[in-house]
Specification:
Length: 85
């Protein structure tokens, strides 16, 4: 889901900004495209939106980055499960 859609259908920009401890202006700049979402904020936004707005949606230019991180996380969890068994 696009961040703009999330903000119009689920939660206000002010509410999301409060969760992220940023200004509503920061959220507005991201939504309008005046500022790209900082890479380090993508996972914060994904978490704050309950996964409705994904890192891939926020920064599609970093698709390989997100695929690597998600693949690594899945492998790490699988390895931890195998070690615990």
């Amino acid at each position: 889901m696009k961040l703009e859609t999330y903000l119009s259908e689920v939660e206000s920009a002010a509410s999301l900004a409060a969760k992220l401890k940023v200004s509503p202006g920061f959220i507005s700049q991201i939504v309008t495209g005046r500022r790209p979402v900082p890479t380090e904020r993508c996972s914060d936004i994904e978490r704050a939106t309950g996964g409705l707005v994904t890192c891939e949606e926020l920064r599609p230019d970093l698709a390989d980055h997100w695929a690597y991180l998600r693949g690594t996380a899945a492998k790490d969890a699988s390895s931890a499960d195998q070690a615990a068994a």
